[in-house]
Write a structure and sequence with these properties.
Belongs to the LOB domain-containing protein family. This protein is mainly alpha-helical. The chain is about 55% helix and about 5% strand.
């Protein structure tokens, strides 16, 4: 008998006499028979015995704890076991991170002042020099330096329209 007068849970389940040097006795006490029963059902007593014998004594308790956890996971999900639980939790973390990023972006949008909207550009609003430069099409290398750019771009903090001055920033965006 491993550590007391009654046989350990494994010897009770296997209906054998519990020896003094029973490898299961320290890890499967008689008051918790379900612990060994589930490990035996998933891995088999012989395999568990071989695993425990190959390990140093100081690592056996952790190994038994892992075997019990994996056996419980295999009973719930016979195909994936604890990997299925880990995968589920990783997916849940990813979804929560996405929700957090969306919430943080919404908070930033609420904190930013509303940008001033540009009026619609009508052809009559473009001056003659710009029209002639656009129509001539000559010297295209200078074209990008001289033509006003009314393109939108998105920065990390807001959407800007190039050519529109930021009310908080006094310097010109024209180059």
């Amino acid at each position: 008998m491993g550590s007391g007068s009654s046989p350990c849970a494994s010897c009770k389940l296997l209906r054998r006499r519990c020896a003094k040097d029973c490898i299961f006795a320290p890890y499967f006490p008689p008051d918790d028979p379900h612990k060994f029963a589930i490990v035996h059902k998933v891995f088999g007593a012989s395999n568990v015995s071989k695993m425990l014998q190959e390990l140093p004594i100081h690592q056996r308790a952790d190994a038994v704890s892992s075997l019990v956890y994996e056996a419980n996971a295999r009973m719930r999900d016979p195909v994936y076991g604890c990997v299925g639980a880990i995968s589920y939790l990783q997916n849940q973390v990813s979804q929560l991170q996405m929700q957090l990023a969306v919430a943080q972006a919404e908070i930033l949008c609420m904190m930013q002042p509303e940008p001033h909207e540009l009026p619609a550009i009508h052809p009559s609003m473009v001056d003659c020099d710009t029209k002639s430069m656009l129509l001539s099409g000559s010297n295209t290398s200078d074209f990008s330096d001289q033509m006003p750019q009314f393109l939108s771009y998105t920065s990390s903090n807001n959407t800007h329209v190039i050519g529109q001055q930021d009310p908080l920033k006094r310097e010109s965006l024209w180059t």
